[in-house]
Amino acid sequence: MTDALQIAIIDDHPLFREGVAYTLGSQPGIEIVGEGESAADAIRIAGERLPDVMLLDVSMPGGGLNAVRQIASAYPVVKLVMLTVSEEEEDVTAALRAGARAYVLKGVAARELVRILRAVAAGEVYVTPSLAATVLLELTGGSSRRQQANPLDELTERERQIIELVAGGDSNKEIAAQLHLSEKTVKHHMTNILQKLQVRNRVEAALLARSGG
Question: Can you give the pTM of this predicted structure?
Answer without folding.
Answer: 0.66
